[in-house]
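Subject: sequence -> structure tokens, single chain

Hey, anyone have a minute? Need the predicted structure for the following. Not urgent.
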Amino acid sequence: QVQLAESGGGLIQAGGSVRLSCAASGSIFSINSMDWYRQAPGKQREMVAHITRGGSTNYADFVKGRFTISRDNAKKTVYLQMNSVEPEDTAVYYCAADIWSDFREAQPSRYWGQGTQVTVSS
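Reply:
Had a minute. Here:
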């Protein structure tokens, strides 16, 4: 069993900052890419940021220059530093990761966290 647990959400004023964390635990052999997604009320889930095992990153256009994704492979944790937040950033934020539970697996499996609410007040 593999679990992803997000933390760090809450109520933030517009223009402020917050850092989200997502820790992977359980039966883990290796973690490949790790991502942050978000889903606002009435909208589809959308990718926010992506980071490879080696640290290469990719961002959605609507967060470029404001959000930073990073990871600590030793801690099996991915972070999302959110700066200059806007009311439009209000959503449930989910982490996702491609994880091998066993070295014999040919392909990793995708796992999702339960989400953490971020609410930005104007």
